[in-house]
Amino acid sequence: MTRCIYPMPEWLEESKKLYDSSFEKKLQKISGHYAYRIKAEPSWGIDKDLFQCSIMDAGKLIEMRFYTEEEAVKEADFIMAASAPVWKNILTKTDKFVAAFMARRIKLDKGNPVKALALGPYAGTMVDSLTQVELVFPDDLSPEEFGQFKAAFAEYRERAGV
């Protein structure tokens, strides 16, 4: 299993490669442009908000990458926002999307709340598609690994403009 550090772009790249017909079938009722705002978390090396975006068409994964805020606001049907630790809890399955959304740990920055809740039954499958790699989080890294991650992540964001 490939080891990826959240939220490095390699995580999304590997997740996209591993997305297969089983996910497509389970998510066949899902179409839209979804953005997930990872709020700034300087202690994790995330100095400003980051937008993870996915485009789905009847379960087919069309695109998955990080967007600028402007792209996300302009193009996404939904923007769901939470702190990096909340997203960690969702991705490690110690919290569930619907519970976090209802408790306002995940907030809807853009989109219809009723339609956002309708995604709830599919959230587990979406999370499964993003956790087919060994996912490691910045708060779990050694100080040396964290320093390397922080530098690489800052360089990536500068280069990618996200």
Structure write-up:
The chain has 162 residues and is of the alpha/beta class. It has a single domain, classed as SCP2 sterol-binding domain (Nonspecific Lipid-transfer Protein, Chain A, 2-Layer Sandwich), CATH 3.30.1050.10. The chain is 44% helix and 25% strand. It has 8 helices and 7 strands; from the N terminus they run E-H-H-E-E-E-H-E-H-H-E-H-H-E-H. It has helices at residues 9-18, 21-26, 69-75, 84-91, 97-102, 113-118, 120-130, 143-160; strands at residues 3-5, 32-39, 50-57, 60-67, 78-83, 107-110, 134-136. Strands 4-3-2-5-6 form a 5-stranded mixed β-sheet. It has a two-stranded parallel ribbon with strand order 1-7. The longest helix has 18 residues, at 143-160. It is globular, with a radius of gyration of 15 Å. The mean pLDDT is 96.
Superfamily at the CATH H level?
A: SCP2 sterol-binding domain
Order of helices and strands: EHHEEEHEHHEHHEH
Biggest β-sheet strands, sense, barrel = 5 strands, mixed
Shape: globular
- Give the terminus-to-terminus CA distance: 27 Å
Helix content: 40-55%
Helix/strand/pairing category: alpha/beta
| Rg, Å, rounded | 15 Å
Estimate the strand proportion: 15-25%
Uncertain ranges: none
Widest β-sheet, arrangement of strands: 4-3-2-5-6
Count of individual domains: 1
* CATH architecture identity: 2-Layer Sandwich
